[in-house]
Amino acid sequence: MIPVPGFEGRRVAVFGLGRSGITAARALQAGGAIPILWDDGEAGRAQAKGEGFTVEDLTAADWSDFAALVLSPGAPLTHPRPHWTVDLARAAGVPVLGDIELFARALADRPKDQRPRVVAITGTNGKSTTTTLIGWVLKSAGLTVHVGGNIGVGVLALPEPTPDAVYVIEVSSYQLDLTTTFAPDVAILTNISPDHLDRHGGMDGYVAAKARIFANHGPDGVALVGVDDTWGQQIASDLSDRATVISTHPSQRAEGYVAQSGAVLKDSELVADLTAARSLPGRHNAQNAAFAYATARALGLDHDAALAGLLSFPGLAHRMEAVGRLGSVRFINDSKATNADAARQALASYPSVFWIAGGVPKTGGIADLADLFPRIAKAYLIGDAAAAFAATLTDTPHVIAHTLDAAVAAAAADAASAGGDQIVLLSPACASFDQFKDFEARGEAFRAAVLALGAVPETAS
What we know:
By secondary structure, the chain is of the alpha/beta class.
């Protein structure tokens, strides 16, 4: 745990008692604060009481007595309208903070020569893989590395800082909205595409939230910016020569890093041959590798150590994860692809796929993927989006399978009948909440259905 100083003996309101909220309360208490907790759900309040925290209805609290409000990233700061705790805090002149800001303040409280280094990653797609990949590369080189934040372990639950440590943390737009002093040593923006627009009041608000990762970027900081979209290009331009750009379009630029399927180039020179990296297929994974390579080099690793880490990366569950093989058919679990842009990366990685898609659709559906439809041997549509996706795929072979189990069985049979090496790809382009509690549960259900057919797990093949 990372104790949070600066609030010794003072009351701090904490709203939202999920993973980040309860962890923030523990960290505040460890730093000497008096956390006052509340949650709309009885389960969260019961857990807090069970741990001995003070639980107080914040609707009736004296807000003039609070030093700060620590807000769960799940509660809206601005849109569709501010959470009621935000209104009360602002009326009383109480600052509204999040767990990433508390983390930043805890590190800043240490003498400069005793502070660990911080790598922070945000973006619409690819941030979890990039975060995990960077952590793997740095750990493989023998560094003391702690990985968490919006992925895995909450940031304040990570081990207490030591001068030799490197924190590699994924940060969401919700978390960045609650930061004011956060200044990572290496700040990474993978890409931006429309997402969470209701929570940010539109695209401008969403882009501004993502750009906050560079808000306190000093002359010694490293900024790595994906520039495959216009928003990333503008952010890189605003940072001027402080940004190192990373693209997947070699025809558009010679400077910076260019990621191609199976290779990473720097200033037009090959720096990483990824053809042997089984867990990094496709241009999007090459771009993730470029972010990891650039980070490793910025933190002092030599070329050989950085490359060795990339080539040994085992991959991440539910992100282009090979889960099994049945004869010549491989099954790929990309359940994390909860929007069309994420599914694009998977579809573009294979010349032909038997594609399982559907769930709760995002705005725009899959129309933007039309240029990749020729790669789809057949689509198997599930969940709420099935009918709408079928209407979009009028000229592409498809069937409404309704359930994931049925889709896996049908896709496996068709892929086997096609002969030769084939790919069955779950890359839903949708949220999971119509049939599963989250994308992890959907991915595990896919794995179970594949193995139930008699497929051999990839790790055993």
